[in-house]
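Sequence in, structure out.
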Amino acid sequence: MAGTGIFTEILDGEVYKYYSDGEWRTSSSGKSVAIINPTTRKTQYKVQACTQEEVNKVMELAKSAQKSWAKTPLWKRAELLHKAAAILKDNKAPIAESLVKEIAKPAKDSVTEVVRSGDLISYCAEEGVRILGEGKFLLSDSFPGNERTKYCLTSKIPLGVVLAIPPFNYPVNLAVSKIAPALIAGNSLVLKPPTQGAVSCLHMVHCFHLAGFPKGLISCITGKGSEIGDFLTMHPAVNCISFTGGDTGVSISKKAGMIPLQMELGGKDACIVLEDADLDLVASNIIKGGFSYSGQRCTAVKVVLVMESVADELVEKVKAKVAKLTVGPPEENCDITAVVSESSANFIEGLVMDAKDKGATFCQEYKRDGNLIWPLLLDNVRPDMRIAWEEPFGPVLPVLRINSVEEGINHCNASNFGLQGCVFTKDINKAMLISDAMETGTVQINSAPARGPDHFPFQGLKDSGIGSQGVTNSINLMTKVKTTVINLPTPSYAMGAGFISRL
């Protein structure tokens, strides 16, 4: 169970502690933040409500610890990361239980997230040793007008303190996707977990603690965003911010100052279906892409743009599959579980009612019980409906019928988002042309949008984000280039004649 066994020390009565200077601590505020179980809508856990003074202390420790960590050999950093990964995977059950209780992720998927996170940490350790173990050597005579009198040596060095802010939907995986690259690169790491998902993150951080990382190098601060959010993101000790979430990221980017930012802020991922597409394949991917984890994924299919000539057939195939989706509690591994909060459910319902008022065709009866919304396919959606443009983050999927490929591309590109998209066709030439025309960070051909495997580049255009993720890209983002130039008094060429005479 969560908070028991090796995790006993992270819990103080009913309230989980925060992590600072290698120890689990209670906040001086004497306050806590409640975490509501999306399924029961009752308080499941409580975490510390940390103060700004405690944030200052964490940042001070992080700056100091990073100086020593930067002098730790790469192989040793990797060794500790491998150890943390093994501990995480060995303790997948209590961490998965936390995911089930605080974000209503199906039990099987929760276990998968933890195991995937361990694999990501290990892969990052190996990749970091490879790419950070190599430098670059430049010679001055490769630029016009220069003799070979300068040797330029470049290497990658850490930025300093990295602030990581993951989202509720993948709190463990999207935390370690920031933590592991930061640590292998020689940075220290301050984690601010989401409220929903905080307990899962605290368990995960304890795995790093047990692995033996130096004190102060990793910290985990919990609390209300209204009290410590801006204080964290605007803190002068922070040298890089990696954030995954929504509109809050735009505000962070405006306030953060001159530091590297890595941000993924959501999407309205379009699925363009051509007349020659394999409709059975399309239907399966729409179900997987649109309804897995109740549609609460940045890379979920969020709008289907299907050619009119095959729309009826596709809609019928998708309807048949929607009817087979199970709805209920995450403990029973249901396909559709409660969305994360009442406010999320209310927002989704607002989009549904707008579509109803404007004449969309409901392929199923709209049904809601608390935070649980039954899967809904909306046909004959028009561009004047909110659901055509806004990200529901729930199990509701709009279908827009199009009369040309250009119409589909134009709708995709008119969105303020540009995370991912997909196109289904048997003509690879058309697929490539459409991919090039779509203004998204990634285009999947004949498959639903997806983040991963975790070493693949992952990025968004427009309001979907800044920078690129994926193991290698994250390591590179969390480092900077350091150059040392050796100046020679006279030109020197390898195997060149006249060497002795110049001595």
